[in-house]
Design goal:
The protein is an all-alpha fold. It has 3 helices and no strands. It has one domain. α1 runs antiparallel to α2.
């Protein structure tokens, strides 16, 4: 969450610099949504990767519960 907030702050600073300082408001408008979507996509992929690398479901549960969860997930 903090990374997404940080990327939005950077995006806003960049857009202000581009729109006001460089006097290119049309370009800043065109880049605004694209940069936001790109940052959101990157952090979704990072979160997905972190979930893939985390412990599997039920790894700390008793053996009989873990076996039943595995059967339910696999559809057996």
């Amino acid at each position: 969450m903090a990374c997404l907030l940080f990327s939005n702050v950077l995006r806003i600073v960049f857009l202000v610099l581009l729109g006001i300082v460089a006097e290119l408001p049309a370009l800043a408008e065109r880049l605004n949504q694209s940069m936001g979507l790109l940052a959101f996509r990157v952090f979704c992929l990072l979160a997905w990767q972190a979930l893939r690398l985390s412990q599997p479901l039920g790894s700390g549960l008793p053996q009989h519960i873990n076996k039943r969860l595995t059967e339910l997930i696999d559809g057996r």
